[in-house]
Amino acid sequence: MRGSATLRKALLLFAHAVFCTFNAVAAEAPISDPLDWLHRSQIAVQKLEYSGTFVYQQGSQVRTSRITRKRTTKSVIEKLEVLDGQSQEYVRNGEETIHYLPAERRIIVEHRTSERSFPDIRFINPREIVRYYVVHPLGIDRVAGRDVLGFALEPRDGLRYGYRFWSDRASGLLLRAQTLSEKGEVIEQIAFTQLSIGKVRPSQVKTSHANTRGWRVENASASSNESSGWKAGWLPGGFKLVSTSKRVLGRPPNAGETREVIQLVFSDGFAGISVFIEAWSPRHDRLPLQQGSLNMLGKRHGKFWLTIVGEVPLVTIRQVAESLEFAASGPN
What we know:
Elements: H1 2-28, H2 34-47, E1 50-58, E2 61-71, E3 76-82, E4 88-93, E5 96-101, E6 106-111, H3 126-129, E7 133-143, E8 146-155, E9 162-168, E10 174-180, E11 186-197, E12 216-219, E13 223-224, E14 230-232, E15 240-250, E16 258-267, E17 272-279, E18 289-291, E19 294-301, E20 304-310, H4 314-323, E21 324-326
Parallel strand pairs: 6-12
Antiparallel strand pairs: 1-2, 1-11, 2-3, 3-4, 4-5, 5-6, 7-8, 8-9, 9-10, 10-11, 13-15, 14-21, 15-16, 16-17, 17-20, 18-19, 19-20
């Protein structure tokens, strides 16, 4: 009897161990695939309401901001407050973004259909990522007091940067992101330092500048210009033209110089490359510049000046710049 009792106890302990192991594996199963979690982060940012403070570092520049997001029956309202330097505030309601600059007593109104901001992840179908990136988990960590799961994306070529993402285990919301150079160095990062997920009051997404009487209002909206006549003869694998637009930069007439600019935007889902095309003038500078993950290069093309800006290595910017051409059949 004693032997039977010991055997039963051993079997129970074994069964318990197997049960615990099974549960542990089952609990980890939903987070074992980085692509599933990246997709979950895409969904989370669309469905959740939240408010939090995050720090953004680009090169030597560091900026702190507060973001608040609320869903309504008609659209999504997002308020972004820049907490460092001169006061700035952005309020996005659907596709319209209003930029408040109290120091200049100025308001800029713009319509944006494709731009996204942290913590939104801008990428294509996750299953296509593996063609250009090697994806692997980084393990469990903590960000802003919350448990997160991290993943790394290593580029398969030298034409793009690498990335690290950390998503909240409870909600899936992206809490930290890093951009890595060709040498594996962190050249840009952004992370929440405080976050509250849950119901957001309507008053939290209203502008703090209730009285803007006497402020100058500028319309910086871009118009679609799909037949610009410009194209890139070469792009890194996975990069596609996602938008073409025309906008007027500068201040209104009688308040300073204005200029018409055509913008082409290419993306592989993570990184973006923008080409700005305008009339050439002697004031332009062709020297390459870098700020964090951004590289910029200017080039003269006949009577046009091209400025190529991208979240990619300079070698990629140079190759895109050399491939740009204007089709004679397109509008001038």
